[in-house]
Amino acid sequence: MLDERISSFFTQAGACTSKTECDTYAATIFGGPSPPVPDQGAWSYTVTAGPDNNTIVQFRELDSPLDVETLAAAHSIHPDLVARCVSHGTIGSPPGLLVYSMPKLPGETYLRISATLRDDDFTHRFTTVLGLAECVHSFLLNPSSPLLPPLARLFSTPSPKVSSS
User: Which residue among 36, 59, 98, 146 is buried most deeply as judged by most CB within 10 Å?
Assistant: First the structure.
């Protein structure tokens, strides 16, 4: 299943970049080997690299970039919950793939945890949504929040493809 998901990404991305090129790039720049993470996004290919596989390296379609400015603002507020994200430009022949890296944070991903929840676990899901709403509300009440400009931009522009990883 994982190999199929990865193969599908490279087929659909239309990039003249291969999985091997991405793996070699990650291993060369951050230290290898660079195994894929178990939960791949729809518009990205993600591996771990570096000593003890402590760096996440993500290769994304050009029309699905990460908003590094928004991530930097979120990281400045919640450094233990939001990883510092660095853009490394593109890899491969045009159109190529965008390359990002970030330290691997401890714990499980939301995707992994949510897969273990039962559909009838309404209380947990409601608590998660309520917590997110309270967080956004507190940013809106604080005019000096560094997240306000990126949040305003997020809600005023057409949405690019969004990935779950």
Answer: 59
